[in-house]
Design a protein that fits this description.
The chain is 40% helix and 14% strand. Helix 8 links the parallel strand 9 and strand 10. The protein is globular and about 65 Å long.
Length: 501
Amino acid sequence: MRILMLSWEYPPANVGGLARHVYHLSRSLARRGHLVDVVTQGTRDTGNGGDGGEAGLSTGAAARSAGGRAAGPEEVALGEGLVRVHRQSAYTLSSPDFLHWVHQLNYSFLEAVMRLTVRGGPLDGPFDIVHAHDWLVAFTARAVKHAQRLPLVATIHATEAGRHHGIHNPWQRYISEVEWWLTYEAWRVICCSGYMESELAGQFQLPQDKMRVIPNGVDPEEVAAAEGPAEEAPEGRAEEPSPGKTGAGRGPRRRDFAQPGEDIVFFIGRLVREKGVDTLLDAFPAVLDRRPATRLVVAGTGPHEGHLRWRVSQMGLDGRVHFAGYLDDRTRNQLYRWAAVAVVPSYYEPFGLTALEAMAAGAPVVVSDTGGLAETVAHGETGLKVPPANPGELAAAILRLLSDPSFARRLAGEARRTAAERYSWAKVAEATEAVYSEVIGEARRTGWTAAGPERAAATGAKAPEAPPPDGEDWEAMRRRTRAMTRGLEPIGRYTPPIVRG
């Protein structure tokens, strides 16, 4: 199967969990024998920087044209399949705002897709399906779908209304409408949890049979690579933690993040309001009252970082909270193993990939009882759940794990087993492949195939005289969705309510 994967981020350009999701999904699909072309963002900073030196990786030159094109793809052969990563920069025109930049990036993505389709290389030619990840690539996905008559699958990782607890300004309204547009154009919509399925059904009036729930995954082998003894400072030598940089030529050291004898409470994620770090800071003084030899390590970057640093200073916690900045995967995995507790205090979390990664690494977890986190963690079995935005309950849960190491180890062991058995990327790829096959089959049976009848004949498919019994044709689906949205302003487009506050 030839799969076109569209994502605005891909390692080493990590903004959130989306990059890791696309990275592991594309590779797991390749291991199942598919050819996956990933079109993604590339800059001078990320360039074709590769992904950790995995065997089989060949990197194109960093030279770019005025349109932002990289000279060649990164190629990774995995089993019988192949992943090719094509990095594109937005046009070099000045962008007055983020939305203009997104449009310029999509034009650049379209150039890449056109080259892959028409240049005539041994691995080029028509795709079988296009898979778009989130609204930032919706314009490319929709254009490719209609120009090449490709069935489109979309994964919605989060929504604008969910991130901001409503729609409060025209920019958010526009992004929400693009999200709806992408789900409307998609043959199937994949979401990562039952929570997200309900959110999409409520916000965008998506019919139930158009959605498929496929959770995120984790790579136990990647996390296991961090296993090893925790390095401590020599006896009697107490060092203040230095910024979370491991230095050239050596791995991470525990004393870069906490002093010897200190328990580490670990948070990692984008530093944005919905991740709930404010609540974690509010809870931490109560933890220190009972367990003074505790260090809070906050890893990640984001627009909320300045506010969080200011709060730490105002609360007098400068010596107890360590901002580690961006961490590479190796350091992140090692910190999971050093952590006495990993905390995911989010207010809004469609899935909670960081919680799953912590579970796979064997870290005891405390998470907010909200969103996909509520589905991933079983309270008292694989972790502890607390109400979101509740510092008292959060502090009590952290203290329970710090004060009862045997209980914490039992939770961590069960969490690790659950992560490995239920959330492997191999299972995620298998489920995603099933969605692809379902969609491609319906498209061919209804005569809505890429390149029309010629392509159907080449694949051996025959267009039926009537719609298939297990699916409906595209126009019927469009009519049904349009009927569900009738009465909205303007007709046929989703207009979310404005929530002020």
